[in-house]
Amino acid sequence: MYPLAAIDEIFQVVLANVKARVALRSLALSCRAFYDPAMDVLWCDLEGLQPLVRCLPSHMVRKVKGTTAAVKITRRPLQADWSRFLHHSRRVRSLQVHSGYGDDSRYDIDYAAFEILRQYHPGLVLPNLQHLVWSDNELAPFATLFVTPSLLSLVFKPVENLEIEDVRAILAEVRGQASELQLLKFPEADL
Q: Could you tell me the superkingdom of the organism this chain comes from (predicted)?
């Protein structure tokens, strides 16, 4: 390894300025010393759960018909199926959950996939999650899956008709799990 790359702080600055995800992946695979730092940056901020769901075995993940790229999980994952998912999920610090299958559904997963995560995922889905932005009231019952002791901010962007039962469940989970929470924001609504 080059002496300059051995200095962690400089390497972190370099990684933080690499914008292309494919370049981060290439860096991670180029040398053992680069793997963990590059993967940490690559997985740090997710705009949806699809990249993690795609870590499940390929025969279990299929495109949702009628969407441009959203995916679903086709069967219950076994314990061994979670290995790659678990390996990368611990690196996620920030997650955004968007509403529906928008124009850019490359980050979307279907409703049933959230249910599979709730029922069969071992432990916390994203154990080191710090920031969660939620923009989908249909998926609001699943927001509790992402409340962790490390969570610092939970923001619900304007969603219509957020159910009071969902709000209560989220608040109960926050009270019990998110002892470090600094920001909790719900849209103005008639709850």
A: Eukaryota
Q: Where are the domains of the chain?
A: 1-44, 47-185
Q: How far apart are CA 105 and CA 99, in angstroms?
A: 10
114 CB-near residues (< 8 Å, 6+ apart): 139, 142, 145
Model confidence pLDDT, tens digit, residues 179-189 = 999 999 987 65
H runs (alpha helix) in the chain? 8-16, 21-30, 32-44, 50-53, 83-89, 111-120, 164-177
Dist CA 48 CA 60 (whole Å): 18
Average pLDDT across the chain, whole number: 86
Q: In what order do the strands lie in the sheet with 183-185?
A: 45-46, 94-97, 131-134, 153-156, 183-185
